[in-house]
Amino acid sequence: MAMMDTPRMVVGVPRENRLGETRVALTPTALPQLTKAGFEVVIEAGAGATAGFPDEAFIARGARIGTRDDAFAADVLVQVNVMDGDPSNPDVSRLRAGQIVVGAVAPFARPALVSAVAATGATLFALELVPRTTRAQSMDILSSQAAVAGYQAVLIAATELPKMFPLLTTAAGTVAPARVFIIGAGVAGLGAIATARRLGANVEAYDVRPAAREEVASLGARFVELPLETGQEEGSGGYATDLSEETIRKQQELMAKTVAASDVIITTAQVQGSTAPVIVTTEMIRGMAAGSVIIDLAAEQGGNCEPTVAGETVDVDGVRVFGVVNLPGSVPVHASQLFGKNVANFVGLMAVDGRLDPEVDDNVIRESVVAKGGDVVNNRVREALGLEPLPEPQAPEPVAAATPAAEEVAT
Ligand code: NAD
What we know:
The chain is an alpha/beta fold and 411 residues long. The chain is built from 12 helices and 19 strands.
């Protein structure tokens, strides 16, 4: 059949409806990649406004502006927060069988939502489940947004701390650099280390993964050695695994001295899919000087600090613990630009010979799909819903030249 007879595949970008969300799921810079792959892009009027991208900027890159219904009529719907809230979100009833929905889903925290989307017959992809491999890095929204969050966390700490970050030698005396301690040296942690170093702070960092030692040192920070048997060698898909209660208690004990000596602590420790480990106790915080600042990036996962409350600032004897949420939303231009590129790369995987193929044989697609054909297809989500597990997918056939470094763990 001639290409001109084939209707164009349409990507729709509705306006985000989570309270306080400023980002948009696609930006004008990512559009040409999709149009070249044969997609038409429909943006709900005003969808990019809070992120700094007016409708005209999308039109200039080949998009069409439409209503919310126009955006929802698309073959592929892309959102920063997919179907925000619970299954009663009226957007769920706009979905139809065969439609593809892509974005951040929080599928393990919202199994009922995944189930409701599955019931519409739509195919749902949770970008949080994109594997942490070198090849998939360009689609990894957790990494792109965490890098932004690490940077922003340091800026918040720098403005809230009643001290300066850099060493300053003046005729009136010398000011010592601030001491910044980063706990968890993954994507957000390394971003925080780099930013704190650029501001001239004296930076220390700790992570349970021994491989983090070199990364920390390469950014000019000192790795805090805690004589602990954590068993966190590389090989768990780029993520740390849970520590025993006893190891965590020992970690807290050994870390207390570094915590007490720090002006700023930024906590970013996470074990994917688990609640955040509590690493800094209220008692440890009481050992810090009044005026010190803690930024807890893991607040939404329960927090790495005992007193953390997501979205709030808690005062512990003059030390303020910031339970920050959605820091990428405070720099929406770049956060959206990175998110949009991740989305375009992901959607591009499904464009095969000018057609849309959500069944394309690709491990990134396989691992991130959570609803398909009217059913919930992720076993962890099924377990949360009390459903029988599905047989694990068959071992993938190697795809020639398409997955050269597929299982290589990202650094
Ligand atoms: P990551 O997986 O890349 O890094 C987490 C690091 O924590 C890993 O290196 C891991 O080894 C380490 N870790 C795990 N358990 C530990 C322990 N007990 N002690 C020390 N280190 C430990 O994750 P990331 O992408 O950098 O995200 C970090 C956190 O930041 C997550 O909780 C994420 O949800 C959060 N985050 C928050 C925002 C926000 O706006 N608040 C935005 C993005 C990410």
